[in-house]
């Protein structure tokens, strides 16, 4: 943010501190951001609120009812919300205190007294970074196509079986991607050629050759294929579960 101008947010954060004056100061520091600031002063109240509200960030003091309650609370939060950021705001300033805070699950450790503008900037930057990481994770999940024991990474163009990358040529990759995107569907040789080669007159023998290439790489027993099945008289079907195809045969075809 530039020149002290902050984008209005709507995330929910929970401030846990046994000092009402500190809680109020934090609330005032964040008021201009639009963040929804909830407050608590004990572990018990915090757990109760967490069961009713989904928070995007926690601000914790180290010392609550007991000396190191904040560390314990951070560990409890991490068990249920491993990706939600935690910022410690504490009067404890020793190197060991900071290390304990970070090791218990904290992402940032700020010491009291704190400058309200610094706290606000740290909260916003932490929320922004978390949002970026979650977006990146979602994109990665979208890029990974999974069918049965097989997966395809669209970013790296890698095909895997049981988590092990299967080395393939570029044309084999395009062919298995076509099948991965269309599981349990029967395709004729003409349809496969049109979708994978897309370059004019069909060569049915080429399809047969590449089907054999793929079977040699993905089947447990290429001579008894259960994943890349022949549907006699029609074409081929990719069955990632390895079950017998239900489609009936019309003719016989090698």
Explained architecture:
It is a single chain. The chain has 254 residues and is an alpha/beta fold. It folds into 2 domains: 12-142, Rossmann fold (3-Layer(aba) Sandwich); 173-238, Winged helix-like DNA-binding domain superfamily/Winged helix DNA-binding domain (Arc Repressor Mutant, subunit A, Orthogonal Bundle). It contains 8 helices and 12 strands. It has a 5-stranded parallel beta sheet with strand order 2-1-3-4-5, sandwiched between helices. Helix 1 crosses helix 5. It is elongated, with a radius of gyration of 28 Å. It starts with 11 loop residues before the first strand and ends in a 16-residue tail after the last strand. Mean pLDDT is 85; it is low at 1-5 and 245-254.
Task: Give a quick precis of the structure.
This protein is of the alpha/beta class and 254 residues long. The protein folds into 2 domains: 131 residues, Response regulator (Rossmann fold, 3-Layer(aba) Sandwich); 66 residues, Arc Repressor Mutant, subunit A, CATH 1.10.10.10.
Shape descriptor reads: elongated
Task: Output the CATH class name of the largest domain.
Answer: Alpha Beta
Number of helices: 8
Q: Can you give the mean pLDDT?
A: 85
CATH architecture of the largest domain: 3-Layer(aba) Sandwich
Return the domain count. 2
CATH superfamily of the largest domain: Response regulator
Please give the oligomerization state of what you see. Answer: single chain
Q: What is the CA-atom radius of gyration, in angstroms?
A: 28 Å
Helical proportion? 40-55%
| Structural class computed from helices and strand pairing | alpha/beta
Portion of residues in beta strands equals: 15-25%
Alpha carbon gap, first and last residue: 66 Å
Strand count, sense and barrel status of the largest sheet are: 5 strands, parallel
């Amino acid at each position: 943010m530039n020149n002290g101008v902050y984008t209005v947010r709507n995330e929910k954060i929970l401030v846990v501190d046994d000092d009402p004056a500190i809680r109020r100061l934090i609330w005032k520091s964040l008021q201009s951001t639009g963040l929804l600031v909830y407050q608590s002063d004990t572990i018990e109240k915090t757990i109760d609120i967490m069961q009713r509200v989904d928070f995007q960030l926690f601000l914790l003091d180290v010392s609550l009812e007991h000396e190191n309650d904040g560390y314990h609370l951070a560990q409890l939060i991490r068990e249920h919300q491993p990706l939600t950021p935690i910022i410690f705001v504490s009067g404890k300033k020793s190197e060991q205190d900071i290390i304990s805070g970070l090791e218990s699950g904290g992402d940032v450790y700020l010491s009291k007294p704190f400058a309200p503008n610094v706290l606000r900037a740290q909260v916003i930057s932490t929320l922004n970074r978390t949002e970026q990481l979650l977006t990146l994770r979602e994109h990665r999940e979208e890029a990974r196509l999974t069918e049965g024991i097989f997966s395809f990474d669209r970013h790296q163009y890698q095909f895997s079986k049981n988590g092990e990358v299967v080395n393939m040529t570029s044309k084999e990759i395009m062919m298995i991607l076509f099948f991965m995107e269309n599981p349990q569907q029967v395709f004729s040789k003409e349809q496969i050629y049109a979708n994978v080669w897309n370059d004019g007159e069909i060569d049915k023998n080429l399809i047969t050759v590449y089907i054999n290439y793929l079977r040699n790489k993905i089947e447990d027993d290429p001579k008894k294929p259960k994943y890349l099945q022949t549907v006699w008289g029609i074409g081929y079907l990719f069955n990632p579960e390895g079950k017998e195809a239900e489609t009936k045969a019309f003719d016989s075809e090698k």
